[in-house]
Design a protein that fits this description.
Number of domains of chain B: 5
CATH superfamily of the largest domain in chain B: NADH-ubiquinone oxidoreductase 51kDa subunit
Radius of gyration of chain A: 19 Å
Number of strands of chain A: 7
CATH class of one domain in chain A: Alpha Beta
CATH topology of one domain in chain A: Ubiquitin-like (UB roll)
Number of strands of chain B: 19
Largest interface: A-B, 35 and 31 residues
Largest sheet of chain B: 5 strands, mixed
Distance between the termini of chain B: 84 Å
Order of helices and strands of chain A: EEHEEEHHHEEHH
Shape of chain B: globular
Strand content of chain A: 15-25%
Helix content of chain A: 25-40%
Largest sheet of chain A: 5 strands, mixed
Strand order of the largest sheet of chain A: 2-1-5-3-4
Strand content of chain B: 5-15%
Oligomer: heterodimer
Structural class of chain B: alpha/beta
CATH architecture of one domain in chain A: Roll
Structural class of chain A: alpha+beta
Shape of chain A: globular
Helix content of chain B: 25-40%
């Protein structure tokens, strides 16, 4: 793999061809916030919190660091007035759904996001897709997926698969950036276990 | 059907088809496109067949069911060849008269076009103003062929461009001709087609694909539909030429399931082309192999976006993916994939046959050729129009479109679909071109043109498109899913009179995030309907927010209907038709609307006789108190007694 030299926040950073800007930054110890990224999963580009400024041959554009491939002479700025403004807005939009999620609260503090800017529509899920993708890509089980689209999009367990796979796995629960129990709740609902004690096997 | 094995063979077959036809023999062409079928062309076609049989004219008169000629407003459209006499709004009961006229070489005067402004008749298709100002390089063939018969396409020189390419041009020469023509993608972005092809061709991966994007989904747009329904072979020919140029052996047509006739016609076309040796193995005996499959879309607007379309083609949920590496290099199943829309592909055979120089004579410096638009909304001549790039919007709307019906005033034209914007009257002289429209805050898009008159509220227009996009967003990325959801909420509030100071600024901030941070073009362009209406009609937003007034008198929650007592003649028409019985008053009693009961359906406004004009719409002002009951008697002085 050929080595690529790029610049992130004024520092020279070495990266391998095929790496993303996020990977290169993480290796160099430069933090870029993410919500939908996971090192074991394919880049997704859903939350857009990792948006950074990328300058190529004098042209500056805003790109998602988790998906953008490194190239030589790339100049990356992980913070700028514009980048911060976008991250703040993304956090505010998400806090309409999950105002008490710790991950969001910490980031909100850093970016000065107002958790009450938008009317609450508490649904807990911020559609990062970590559970869905982890189940598909790592566990190859496809027990949980997205249904519907746009603002009606929801995660949903497939009862037939979930009944067989989920109780001995539950690896998606801790991945959830908002509320681990949400996954458990949806799962329980999907399996319709209301009338059965959860502790029994 | 015998296979065609060489260019000479192709020419021979063409000559045979032509020789079997008598050019002087009358042919009745009936549009069997979706628009005309909806207005009853099916019955008209059946009537023609029956009538010709009845008059025993099968040996003397031909009929042909063709694609859409564009004048949907006046469908079903019938054209009589060889004279090209055009009959409009033909009904089954008109058929015997037309058939007799054809036999006697006469014209049925009452069915020809009459200019509503001058009263002048236009007998020939070419003389109708709607057609006269068009340059119909692409769509002009629609009425000349039956899309279900490959012979018709061969007869007008079909597949001769493919023969030329396969036997007389190298792939590089084809590519350079297309590059030279400056053809830009007709699907929305306007990316130079030749450059896209070149990128794919130069990609090292030997497995490449060419794809037709027929997932046209903009509200009110039906350009690609008409081309694919009316002339599917031209798209197939263009696609095959593209495959040869980039080195693809497989192609796909991604067509919306909601276009059943397009699906049917393109499947028939593929089958016929394969039987004739114009698709499949060893095309025309050249050794070049190319197969095409049809993939039916499942009804998602976002699948018109290239990466979402390709994800859907792979059999997964149609969601966009990052395109930091172009799909031309890494597309379907990660192989280089050239995606162009129907209209772009259909231009290719013309460029090859007539040359890049011919193509470049139409258009502006940076936008070459012709473009098909679907002209809809508050316009006299609804339909498909093909015009040279660079034509002024005013000419499209007034010369071709015939202006605004009902004596109303033009307000704006929305171009580019939900990603586009509204262009106001002050910019009507704007030249139609990719960059010109973008600079005005709109875009070419795939060619939708929605005309709006003075009764259209621009805030409501923005709300309509945001509502559409909220519904059609795939939901993958936050700036689009959440951002336009919040934008829609704000706009919903504004049109309901619940807007607040600061809403415009918040909408602008949400727009910035959507434009800069969304994953795909749907989100990046979603704020355009809002931004362009704000740019040109800011005062309408402010009136809604500050004065709770809708200047166009359109937003239901901000208007009231009022009967002016001095004009009301107590005719009872409105009172009888009010669906909620909100109008009090009887014979000789001035009518009064109960504002509590009124649902603002507007029926009273529409039915009040024009000579009275007593019903008025109000906005931003209090409704006058109803006149006292004892003062409601109407005096009818001088009328009777």
């Amino acid at each position: 793999m050929s080595e690529i030299l790029l610049q992130i926040d004024g520092r020279e950073v070495r990266a391998k061809a095929g790496m993303t800007v996020l990977e290169a930054a993480q290796r160099a110890g430069i933090a870029i916030p993410t919500l939908c990224h996971h090192e074991k999963l394919e880049p997704y580009g859903g939350c857009r919190l990792c948006t950074v400024e990328a300058e190529v041959r004098g042209w500056t554009k805003l790109v998602a660091a988790c998906c953008y491939p490194v190239e030589s002479d790339l100049v990356v700025r992980t913070r700028s007035e514009k980048v911060d403004r976008i991250r703040r807005m993304i956090l505010e939009l998400l806090m309409a759904h999950a105002p008490d999620a710790f991950a969001l609260q910490d980031l909100a503090k850093e970016y000065g996001a107002d958790r009450d800017r938008f009317e609450k529509e508490a649904s807990f899920c911020i559609h990062c897709g970590l559970c869905v993708r982890y189940c598909a890509e790592v566990k190859k089980a496809n027990a949980v997926g997205f249904i519907d689209r746009g603002t009606r999009r929801e995660i949903c367990f497939v009862p037939e698969i979930a009944a067989k796979e989920c109780w001995q796995c539950k690896e998606c629960f801790p991945l959830c950036p908002t509320e681990a129990l949400q996954a458990a709740y949806v799962l329980t609902e999907a399996l319709n276990l209301k009338n059965r004690p959860l502790s029994s096997k | 059907m015998p296979r065609i094995n060489s260019p000479e063979d192709l020419e021979k077959v063409r000559q045979e088809i032509l020789a079997a036809r008598d050019p002087g023999r009358p042919c009745i062409s009936i549009c069997a496109g979706t628009g005309c079928l909806a207005s009853g062309a099916g019955e008209v076609i059946a009537a023609f067949k029956a009538e010709i049989e009845k008059q025993d004219l099968q040996a003397e008169v031909n009929t042909r069911e063709t694609g859409c000629p564009g004048f949907c407003e006046r469908g079903p459209v019938v054209v009589i060849y060889p004279e090209e006499i055009c009959y409009l709004q033909v009904r089954p009961e008109d058929v015997p008269e037309i058939v007799s006229a054809v036999k006697e070489k006469k014209v049925v005067e009452r069915l020809v076009y009459v200019d509503p402004a001058t009263g002048e008749k236009a007998i020939l298709e070419a003389d109708i103003p709607f057609y006269k100002h068009q340059v119909r390089n692409l769509i002009g063939s629609n009425i000349r062929i039956d899309p279900k018969r490959i012979e018709d396409y061969l007869a007008i020189g079909g597949y001769s461009a493919l023969a030329r390419v396969l036997f007389r041009m190298s792939a590089g020469e084809v590519l350079s001709e297309v590059k030279k023509s400056n053809l830009r993608g007709r699907g929305g972005g306007g990316f130079p087609t030749g450059r896209k092809w070149e990128e794919s061709r130069n990609a090292p991966d030997p497995i490449k694909y060419v794809i037709v994007n027929a997932d046209e989904g903009d509200p009110g747009a039906f350009m690609d539909r008409a081309l694919l329904e009316g002339n599917p072979h031209s798209t197939l020919e263009g696609l095959t030429i593209g495959a040869y140029a980039v080195g693809a052996r497989e192609g796909y047509i991604y067509v919306r399931q909601e276009y059943p006739l397009a699906v049917e016609n393109v499947i028939i076309a593929i089958k016929q082309a394969e039987e004739r040796g114009l698709l499949g193995k060893d095309i025309l005996g050249s050794g070049f192999d190319f197969t095409v499959k049809v993939h039916k879309g499942a009804g998602a607007f976002v699948c018109g976006e290239s990466s979402a379309l390709m994800t859907a083609l792979e059999g997964r949920a149609g969601e966009p993916r990052p395109k930091y590496i172009h799909t031309a290099v890494k597309g379907v199943w990660d192989h280089p994939s050239v995606l162009n829309n129907v209209e772009t592909w259909a231009n290719v055979p013309l460029i090859i046959n007539k040359g890049a120089g011919w193509f470049m004579q139409f258009g502006t410096e940076r936008s070459k050729g012709t473009k098909i638009f679907s002209l809809v909304g508050k316009i006299t001549n609804t339909g498909l129009v093909e015009v040279p790039m660079g034509i002024a919007l005013r000419d499209v709307i007034y010369k071709i479109g015939g202006g605004i019906p009902g004596g109303k005033r033009f307000k704006a034209v929305q171009t580019g679909g939900p990603s586009g914007g509204c262009i106001p009257e002050s910019l009507l002289d704007l030249e139609v071109g990719f960059d010109e429209l973008s600079r005005a805050g709109s875009m070419m898009g795939s060619g939708g043109m929605i005309v709006m008159d003075e009764d259209t509220c621009m805030v409501d227009v923005a709300r309509y498109f945001l509502n559409f996009l909220t519904d059609e967003s795939c939901g993958k990325c936050v700036p689009c899913r959440e951002g336009i959801r919040q934008m829609l909420k704000l706009l919903d509030n504004i049109v309901k009179g619940k807007g607040k100071e600061g809403d415009i600024e918040l909408l602008e901030a949400l727009s910035e995030t959507a434009i800069d941070a969304s994953l795909c073009a749907l989100g990046k362009t979603a704020p355009n309907p809002f931004l362009s209406t704000l740019k040109y009609f800011r005062e309408e937003y402010e009136a809604h927010i500050r004065q709770k007034r809708c200047p166009a008198l359109s937003c239901k929650e901000l208007i009231a209907y009022h009967i002016e007592p001095e004009k009301c003649r107590a005719c009872m028409i409105c009172a009888k038709q009010c669906p909620v019985n909100a109008i009090a008053g009887g014979k000789n009693l001035i009518h009064v609307i109960d504002q509590e009961k009124c649902t603002k359906c507007g029926t009273c406004f529409e039915v009040c006789p024009a000579r009275f004009g007593a019903v008025r719409k109000l906005s931003g002002e209090p409704v006058p108190a109803p006149i006292p009951e004892d003062a409601r008697a109407v005096s009818r002085k001088g009328k009777e007694t």
